[in-house]
From TrEMBL, chain A:
This is Sulfite dehydrogenase. InterPro entries: Ig_E-set, MoCF_OxRdtse_dimer, Mopterin_OxRdtase_euk, OxRdtase_Mopterin-bd_dom, OxRdtase_Mopterin-bd_sf, Sulfite_DH_SoxC, TAT_signal. Residues 112-274 form the Oxidoreductase molybdopterin-binding domain. Residues 1-34 form the signal peptide. GO terms for biological process: sulfur compound metabolic process.
Length: 425, 234
């Protein structure tokens, strides 16, 4: 382990010097802040209001909220994407986040019939179909069952779906923001299925939501018995209404559409139901006109969140390049970063927990000399899957898949530090 | 059976299950063991009553399982559709604004801009019935009767030229015999074989490609919302 990180460090040094070589001749400016460093800083020499007067008392914000200086850190939608706000999506501001946990209020939303507001005392979960005894549970029943805590990413299969034909949306919030990473508390689905007793011919489960869309999806019973959770909490508190309060399915590593919110019923059957969401949607139309179905697993993917169009480089000299990587097949083993559009690659530094089917944080600490950069990242997971380029993906799938676009993203960083979403040829 | 014997039996059953689902168990998280398997039923929850199951279990499968007894004609469906559905889906299912197009598009799946409708894309008719009955009309879900849902599905078959006769009656007896044109075009996920080359032991690190050129820019498409603005927050 230690040898590996040393090797990474050596490689990184080599890489950084290569990057600076590319820009030889351009004068490096240090710090480059606009302040005049010869005069004392009044923020230090003069007493500021917040240093003299008392601030708010303890109960001003009984449920805390972010600083007013963070008011731009919000989910945003792309209004032209969908017909109505109740059947729409908004996007996680990935460029504003760090670490691996997504704050509950910033987790992207995707609804098919708006946000159901359900009194937990009025919520019921039914298990029926091929079981020994069909059962009805209250939320109180569910909270008396053995529970577990797990951190998992949830990615919408349509994340990056607007980018199949070329660069379209200018910001990682919009190109990659249909992903979030949360610690769930919930009951293993197996516990609930055991309580009802699966019949021997049980092969598929149908999960159904209690919202106005009655969202339903089929799930192989093997997955249901392995790592699926019925979650009632996220990041230590009750689920947010927009994330399925009071109960949602957690289907680790598999497309977000399966993670049925406001979960009210699980039916056990011997074949898939072929619901709207698994036939007319969430199937991948290929160039030859055929369609791949049951593409549950999210392939390994990564994105650089800074620099990115919403997070320009402000200074020459020292900078932090950062991003997320994730895989529905396991853990992230390695992330490579290129600053020259994929010609040369360097292994990034992974920091923080590396968990199964979770976002993983990577960094490259680098000196920027003001040269144009073409920033890319490439995830490699524990099964050896290497995130493909967009063109490699298009070659095998065409451009009409909509779903499962995990191609390598390119940000063009201009000499003034601004970045934009580009397509390379 | 003593409680120890029960524990042992449960252990064996779990072992068998894990063995059978080998493909999944390989993916199980290694960090932190799953909670201990319960040795017996927890005794939580209560038996679901037949009336309760009937109220929620409205799903329909391609083989017709779950279809309620009922019937409706193309003609009846046309009338209902114009009244309850056309404001979003258009008089002929052509879609209004960004609302879903329901008819047409046959032969476009390999085209530059495929038109994925019930007639051109959907594999199973049961999906139409299941979806209408659980979620339509949008904003007033579960307000249609079983017969009205049959009539609407019949009309949608007519709009898609799958049924020509406007006196055609769709019912629980003839439903499963009707096949949609694109049914055979779907196949199970095969990425782990068809995209095997993405499992690459030795990805290139140096001089991996020609000097890249920018061939497209998101800003030229100009469809990105202003990243600085957003919904009003107080």
């Amino acid at each position: 382990m230690r040898d590996k990180s040393r090797a990474d460090l050596v490689n990184r040094r080599r890489f950084l010097s290569a990057a600076s070589l590319a820009g030889a001749g351009i004068a490096m400016t240090r710090g480059a802040s606009a302040t005049d460093t010869t005069k004392p800083d009044p923020l230090i020499t003069e007493v500021q209001d917040w240093q003299r007067y008392l601030g708010d008392g303890v109960d001003k914000r009984p449920y805390g909220s972010p600083s007013k200086f963070e008011k731009n850190v919000i989910r945003r939608d792309v209004s032209w994407l969908t017909a109505s706000a109740e059947s729409s999506v908004n996007f996680t501001p990935l460029h504003e986040l760090d670490g691996i946990i997504t704050p509950s209020g910033l987790c992207f939303e995707r609804h098919h019939g708006g946000v159901a507001e359900i009194d937990p005392a009025k919520h019921r979960l039914m298990i029926n179909g091929l079981v020994e005894k069909p059962l009805v549970f209250t939320m109180d029943d569910i909270k008396r069952m053995p529970r577990t805590n797990r951190i998992y990413f949830l990615e919408c299969a349509a994340n990056s779906g607007m980018e199949w034909r070329g660069a379209q949306l200018n910001g990682c919030q919009f190109t990659h923001g249909m992903v979030h990473n949360v610690m769930y508390t919930g009951v293993p689905l197996k516990v609930v299925l055991d309580e009802a007793g699966l019949r021997p011919n049980a092969k598929w489960l149908m999960l159904e939501g209690g919202d106005a869309s009655g969202m339903n999806r089929s799930l192989p019973v093997e997955k249901g018995l392995s790592d699926v959770l019925l979650a009632f909490a996220m990041n230590g508190e009750a689920l947010r209404p927009e994330q399925g309060y009071p109960l949602r399915a957690v289907i680790p590593g598999w497309e977000g559409n399966l993670w049925v919110k406001w979960l009210r019923r699980i039916e056990v059957g011997d074949q898939p139901w072929q619901t709207r969401e698994e036939t007319s949607k969430y199937t991948d139309l290929l160039a030859d006109g055929r369609s791949r179905k049951h593409t549950f697993i999210m392939d390994a993917k990564s994105v650089v969140t800074s620099p990115s169009p919403q997070a320009p480089l402000k200074y020459k000299g020292r900078n932090v390049l950062s991003g997320f990587a994730w895989s529905g097949r396991g853990t992230i083993q390695r992330v490579d970063v290129s600053l020259d559009g994929g010609r040369n690659w360097q292994t990034a530094r992974i920091d923080g927990p590396v968990l199964d089917k979770s976002l993983t944080r990577f960094y490259v600490d680098f000196d920027w000399n003001g040269e144009e950069l073409m920033v890319q990242s490439r995830a490699i997971d524990s099964t050896g899957y290497v995130q493909p380029t967009k063109d490699e993906l298009r070659k095998v799938r065409g451009v009409n898949s909509i779903y499962h676009n995990n191609g390598i993203q390119t940000w063009l960083v201009h000499r003034n530090g601004d970045s934009e979403n580009v397509e390379l040829g | 059976m003593s409680s120890w014997a029960r524990l042992l039996a449960a252990g064996i059953a779990v072992g068998l299950m894990t063995g059978l689902s080998g493909a999944w168990s390989a993916e199980r998280p290694r960090v932190g063991a799953a909670p201990a398997e319960p040795a017996a039923k927890m005794g939580l929850g209560r038996e679901a009553l037949p009336e309760e199951i009937a109220a929620w279990d409205t799903d329909v499968r391609p083989d017709g399982r779950g279809l309620p007894v009922g019937r409706g004609t193309v003609k009846q469906g046309d009338e209902l559709f114009q009244e309850r559905c056309a404001s979003c889906h258009g008089e002929f299912g052509q879609g209004a604004g960004r609302w879903p197009v329901l008819a047409g598009g046959q032969g476009t799946l390999r085209a530059d801009r495929p038109d994925k409708t019930i007639g051109s894309f959907w594999p199973d008719l049961s999906t139409v019935y299941d979806y209408i009955r659980r979620a339509m009309p949008y904003g007033n879900a579960r307000s249609l009767t079983d017969d009205e849902a049959y009539a609407l599905v019949a009309f949608l078959l007519n709009l898609n030229d799958i049924v020509k006769d406007e006196n055609f009656e769709l019912n629980d007896k003839n439903f499963a015999s009707i096949k949609l044109p694109n049914a055979e075009a779907f196949f199970d996920d095969d990425r782990e074989t068809s995209e095997k080359k993405f499992w690459n032991k030795d990805p290139c690190m140096r001089n991996c490609r020609e000097l890249p050129k920018v061939t497209g820019k998101a800003i030229s498409v100009d469809v990105t919302p202003d990243g600085k603005s957003g919904p009003k927050v107080d």
